[in-house]
Amino acid sequence: MKRIRNFSIIAHIDHGKSTLADRLLMATGAVTEREFRDQVLDTMELERERGITIKAQTARLRYSAGDGREYTLNLIDTPGHVDFSYEVSRSLAACEGALLIVDASQGIEAQTLANTYLAMQNDLVLILVINKIDLPQAEPGPVMEQVEHIIGIGREEALLVSAKQGIGVEEVLRSIVDRIPAPRGDPGAPLKALLFDSWFDTYRGVVVLARIHDGELAVGDRIEFMSQKAVYEVEEVGYLTPKLQKSERLTTGEVGYVMAGIKDLGHARIGDTITHARRPTTTPLPGFKEAKPMVFCGMYPTAATGVEELRKALEKLRLTDFSFRYEPENSPALGMGFRCGFLGLLHREIIQERLEREFDLNLLTTAPNVSFRVTRNDGTEIQVENPAQLPPSSEIRTIAEPVIEALILTPDRYLGSMLKLLESRRGEQKKMEYISSQRIILTYHLPLNEIVFDFYNHLKSLSQGYASLDYEFIGYREADLVRLDILINREPVDALSLIVHREKAFTLGRSLVQKLKDAIPRQQYEVSLQAALGKRVIARESIKAYRKDVLAKLYGGDYTRKMKLLEKQKAGKKRMKKVGQVEIPQEAFMALLKIK
What sections of 282-360 are H helices per DSSP? Predict the structure, then answer.
């Protein structure tokens, strides 16, 4: 145990976590020159395409220190985006220390602070790494001052590194061995292991990733998942190097995978404690606080995909990503589907893409919305995750919306644009302070409903990509909210309904019907689009019908012949309109994302 070090890499998005992980793998010989490729630990196709880490990945490294001793380093590379902070918190629970990476050209960003606080809550030893010192615009001195001022890590403790050039990588490895403590635990005590990740293998069933806190785990042991009381026999254990490497046993302090022929996906719950069935531990590990979905949307199969296939795919995907949830839903407009909850918009986008790529599904998703707390006139409280569930206004006493505390870091030259954007989204300023001569940190309370629609894109475009955002849910606040319904040919479409602030309802309604007019294709009959508050229509647009030239065969003659043909065509169109249904493409639902 004295030769084991468990550590994580944390940073803001694009500060060089995956590149440093690549260098550590190369320096310790875990990956050969022939096997090497950029972003070695980013195994998902989506991660490589987007250049971001979505899933935390583990690798076991062997490092020979200068004193001739060999150490086992268990590395966990984590995501940097705010939507995947749940992955970070799970990874940190399996470690004793973390490398905090800060970009020498950009300095501290919003997610740097959020991840630092997470590491401090887990009592981890932090090693500050100033990365990208090879860039012409790098300013390590001022960045170290920022870190000292805001986080409190002294500049003498910082390591200056260029992961891309391989500068300072050896110093990082030596610091991990010298400064991060060895894991603690009792090898003779009953087995106590924390399940912090899992995935599904078509041939072997559920594979779980565990950190051994006490005791040891060997092939042939009968283990119990404590929260589910499910008992299995261990078929294989080992560790990731980053490839799967078989082993006879996992001992105290180690991180490794366990295969036990688990077919029931519900038995391997993230945060559960694994123990021996015959000699169980008396107290389970505290596990993780369950992630609370903040953004909701409906997912419906198209004609080519069945509801049952979608349910199975969601079940398997939830095994690798425990932070989203789903429940069956029936929409009059779209049929049977599922209402899914996510941590944010990027999280929703990633889940949809993974379902379509990994499970070959064709999906139609509705525009995202947040959860509201509604108090009826009789005093009962209900949680509304779908605008269609909102009771009539005559039955509602109050509606409360979720509020977040947002941290925005921006260069001071964009301050005016940032303040204007935040005020337009009903933001309430709590604090504004300079963290350096040219960078400001803004603290705002904002309704979550206001940042769901295109807020992040506006933030980035107004600041030319320099501003960063992190947020935390702080509670609910009462507001004057109404349901905005969309009617197509006078029929309400529940999947297009929104809950919005009354002041913005008219502007949004008009904007939305204009967007839908562009998104919905023309039909053989006129289609009317209306936005309504209750029974009051506040905006309307019409999509003109295709019209066949019925007068082409006329070569003159009496005017009444022309009118007769036009009237006949008009009557036919009217009949089509009465029985016709409009096919709504996916673009129409996504038009809601661009209306603010």
Answer: 307-320, 345-358
- On whether both 175 and 196 belong to a single domain, the answer is no
236 and 144, same domain (yes or no): no
SS3 412: helix
Q: Which of 319, 259, 321, 256 is nearest to 59 (CA)?
A: 256
- Edge-to-edge order in the sheet of strand 57-64: 57-64, 70-77, 4-11, 97-103, 125-131, 159-160
pLDDT digit string, tens, across residues 218-275: 888 899 888 888 888 989 998 887 778 888 888 888 888 899 888 887 787 777 888 9
pTM listed for this prediction:
0.74
Q: Work out the burial of residue 121: count CB atoms within 10 Å of its CB; fewer than 13 is exposed, 13-18 middle, 19 or more buried.
A: exposed
Phi-psi region of 420 (alpha: psi -120 to 50; beta: other; left: phi over 0): alpha
What is the torsional sign of CA 433, 436, 438, 440?
negative
- Amino acid at position 501, single letter: H
Instruction: Determine the Cα–Cα distance for residues 525 and 569; give it in Å rounded to an integer.
Output: 11
Give the integer Cα–Cα distance in Å for 199 and 317.
Answer: 8
Closest alpha carbon to 30 in 243, 196, 212, 182: 243
* Domain coverage including residue 127: 4-179
251 pairs with which residues across the strands? none
Residue 352 belongs to a domain: yes
Element (DSSP H or E) covering residue 263: none
Of 128, 144, 179, the last residue of a domain is 179
Give dist(CA 103, CA 101) in Å, integer.
Answer: 7
d(CA 470, CA 444): 11
Give the integer Cα–Cα distance in Å for 94 and 10: 14
Q: Which CATH number covers residue 211?
A: 2.40.30.10
**How does DSSP assign 510-550, residue by residue?**
HHHHHHHHHHSPP-SS-EEEEEEETTEEEEEEEEPPP---T
Q: Tokens 């997470």 correspond to what residue?
A: 118
Query: 486-495 pLDDT, tens per residue?
Result: 888 888 888 7
